[in-house]
């Protein structure tokens, strides 16, 4: 009860704040329709760098460069949001890695230039891919986004002796949470997006075909040698671009651990959890709806070498699946966008009700996460201190690995 009161009043404040600088007084959105009308796109495409953005430029379906809007706070490399002339579809390039993604999406979410309460967000970027699950050129849609870098890191040259980690094992659920470890998005919406994307004919190239064939000799990499498909599987965020079987398996284990066995580690990228955390915070004040997010990642390269390939060759070989992955952002993504636009009035405007938990690991938006230790909110109050769940019953901090002081 307390929580809903807080959220309602915060929501009102944020709308008021967002517009008071323009009009000097609080007005409802309806009242100011004549003087100022924020852009309210039906779909907002989130790209991370130039090639991903250019997949949407010069296409026959719409001209996303018809309307350029300078938004304070977004990347100086990509200072404008682009929209179609009817403002149905907008696109932004965040810049790469988590900090750029978070600050750009934050700026957009709180900008008075936009009204995003009904907007669907399509995260549309390339990613590394786990050959145990899928292959280069594939189009993936995630339910879980896991921040796998939220672990303690030790340089391999200073690796502790086997056995000395004691109870602080990587297989234990973390005793301290930052809140961005796992996000879960609308499963119903994901399935709809997949069904739209499956109507696309995916691109593939001779280079990608011969590269993925090299994975066929390793039994567990069989999916990596298959032709690309549209597939449901989860994504890992790490600011560090990584490669190798050991790190891949470690992230696989972490994804499984953080999601209590539900998440399938499939793609790896550098932004999604940051984007999701910004959207989550905006959702707490009603500025966006967290159940309107689609995470689409197309696979550009493998996260680990094939048998007998050096790890450096895998890291540095840029040909792999980059071309088809960029093509497929558009080919699959346009089906999702058109599906939403065509079904707007009778289906999407009202929203797609989620039948799964939607939100973060803390339970910030309400409800009980189906992963992690459960919601930290009791009667609307977060039972946390500076670093997460330290005081939650049964989750005692590990003295051995922690160096901060309260
Ligand atoms: C919008 O910006 C792009 C470059 O980012 C440019 O090509 C396009 O012409 C601009 N559109 C308008 C209407 O000025
Ligand atoms: C990022 O979000 C995804 C999707 O919700 C989640 O599976 C993943 O655990 C998150 N990762 C991090 C590092 O927050
Ligand atoms: C991942 O988990 C499996 C099963 O517990 C374990 O055998 C393997 O060593 C782990 N891999 C890494 C890299 O931690
Ligand atoms: C890897 O190299 C070894 C030694 O040259 C060879 O015996 C093995 O067949 C190779 N494996 C594959 C899958 O190519
Ligand atoms: C795939 O895209 C490339 C450009 O990246 C193009 O040259 C090629 O013809 C396309 N192939 C198919 C099968 O559409
Ligand atoms: C997830 O796993 C942890 C550690 O085993 C456990 O404490 C927690 O209750 C589990 N959460 C759910 C929702 O099953």
UniProtKB/TrEMBL annotation:
InterPro entries: Pur_nuclsid_perm. Residues 1-18 form the signal peptide. It comes from the Eukaryota. GO terms for biological process: transmembrane transport. This is Purine nucleoside permease. The gene is NUP_1. Keywords: Signal. GO terms for cellular component: endoplasmic reticulum.
């Amino acid at each position: 009860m307390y929580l809903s009161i807080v959220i309602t009043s915060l929501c009102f404040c944020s709308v008021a704040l967002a517009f008071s600088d323009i009009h000097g007084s609080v007005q409802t959105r309806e009242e100011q329709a004549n003087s100022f009308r924020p852009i309210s796109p039906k779909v907002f495409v989130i790209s991370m760098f130039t090639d991903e953005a250019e997949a949407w430029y010069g296409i026959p379906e719409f001209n996303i460069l018809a309307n350029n809007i300078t938004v304070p706070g977004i990347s100086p490399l990509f200072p404008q949001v682009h929209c179609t002339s009817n403002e149905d579809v907008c696109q932004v390039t965040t810049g790469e890695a988590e900090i750029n993604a978070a600050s750009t999406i934050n700026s957009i979410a709180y900008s008075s230039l936009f009204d995003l309460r009904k907007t669907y967000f399509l995260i549309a970027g390339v990613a590394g891919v786990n050959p145990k699950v899928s292959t280069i050129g594939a189009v993936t849609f995630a339910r879980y986004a896991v921040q796998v870098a939220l672990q303690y890191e030790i340089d391999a040259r200073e690796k502790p002796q086997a056995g000395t980690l004691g109870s602080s094992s990587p297989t234990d659920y973390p005793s301290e949470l930052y809140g961005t470890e796992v996000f879960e998005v609308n499963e119903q919406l994901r399935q709809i997006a997949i069904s739209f994307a499956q109507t696309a004919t995916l691109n593939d190239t001779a280079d990608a075909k011969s590269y993925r064939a090299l994975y066929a000799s390793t039994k567990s990499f069989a999916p990596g040698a298959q032709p690309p498909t549209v597939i449901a599987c989860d994504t890992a965020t790490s600011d560090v671009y990584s490669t190798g079987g050991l790190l891949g398996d470690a992230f696989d284990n972490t994804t499984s651990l953080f999601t209590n066995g539900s998440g399938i580690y499939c793609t790896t990228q550098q932004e999604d959890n940051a984007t999701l955390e910004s959207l989550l915070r905006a959702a707490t004040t009603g500025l966006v709806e967290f159940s309107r997010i689609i995470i689409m990642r197309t696979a550009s390269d493998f996260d680990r070498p094939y048998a007998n390939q050096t790890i450096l060759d895998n890291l540095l070989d840029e040909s792999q699946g980059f071309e088809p992955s960029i093509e497929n952002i558009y080919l699959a993504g346009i089906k999702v966008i058109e599906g939403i636009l065509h079904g707007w009035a009778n289906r999407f405007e009202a929203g797609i009700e989620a039948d799964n938990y939607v939100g973060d690991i803390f339970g910030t938006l309400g409800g009980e996460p189906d992963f992690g230790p459960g919601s930290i909110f009791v009667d609307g109050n977060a039972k946390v201190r500076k670093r997460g769940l330290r005081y939650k019953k049964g989750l005692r901090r590990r003295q051995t690995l922690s160096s901060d002081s309260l």
